[in-house]
Amino acid sequence: MNEAAEGVRLQKVLANAGVASRRVCEDYIVAGRVRVNGRVVTELGTRIDPASDLVDVDGTAVQLDAAKRYIMLNKPTGVVSSMKDEQGRPDLRRFTKEWPERLYNVGRLDAETSGLLVLTNDGDLAHVLAHPSFGVTKVYIAKVSGRVTPQTIATLTRGIELDDGPIAADKARLLDASGTGERGTSLVELTLHSGRNRIVRRMMAAVGHPVVELVRRQFGPLHLGTLPAGRARELTTVERGALLTAARRAAPSPQGDSHTGRSDAGDSDTGDF
């Protein structure tokens, strides 16, 4: 934290970030509701560097850099998760034209999978949220062939063996089943933190229920909601706070504060689904 004279007063930074009026932000500080780099700050004279210090109010991260963009896209099927596809297939550029910043996708969904994809120019956040080692959870709804039984759901959560090792769903539940035998179909909700390639499709195939349709409904704290396929929007203030908070909790620094490691967003190592 920078407390030198050239810093910016904490209450001014919070007010500029849209947390509340400067007077209310002062009350938050005095009440011990504000932390800077993981430490509670109660002095109104505190100055910080908005470019490097991390601030949260009541445990929720505050976005200080107004140049950062956080976009939610409901990716339709038939679109590859790339900003420029070398094979000329439909890519993500068509959904980012209204934002001048150079955006990157956080992770990937395969071309035939639809649903929630985060686009951002925040490299630190992209690295943390996309990398499998940080264990960000995702929720998928899979329409699969055949009638899924409770025993199969139990198998998915207990764990199965794939070619690249064992895997278990964090949660699984049967939403619906219709028809009979092989002509039937089922809707299964899977919660996973794995980033392995096409893991949902491979898991369902392994238990005898190949995926017919697949959509990602949730990514970390974000929910797709009613956003139509092919539409993108900026995250709300509440959503941005939740996403930044999730990223900081996922990757605490060796010094014990909330800084995440530096990374180019384009280098995130993630899996298709």
Helical residue percent?
10-25%
**Mean of all residue-level pLDDT scores:** 88
What structural category do the secondary elements indicate? alpha+beta
Shape: elongated
Number of helices: 6
Radius of gyration: 21 Å
Order of helices and strands: EHHEEEEEEEEHEHEEEEHEEEH
Low-confidence stretches: 254-270
Please indicate the percent range of residues in DSSP E strands (runs of 2 or more).
Answer: 25-35%
* Distance between the ends: 40 Å
Q: Sheet with the most strands?
A: 9 strands, mixed
In total, the number of strands is: 17
What secondary-structure arrangement, pairings included, does this model have?
Layout (H helix, E strand, L loop, with lengths): L7 E2 H7 L5 H9 L3 E3 L2 E2 L6 E2 L6 E3 L2 E2 L8 E6 L28 E3 L6 E8 L2 H8 L7 E8 L4 H9 L1 E3 L2 E3 L3 E8 L6 E8 L6 H8 L4 E9 L2 E2 L8 E3 L2 H14 L23
Parallel strand pairs: 9-15
Antiparallel strand pairs: 1-4, 2-3, 2-5, 5-6, 7-9, 7-17, 8-9, 10-14, 10-15, 11-12, 13-14, 15-16
Helix pairs in contact: 1-2
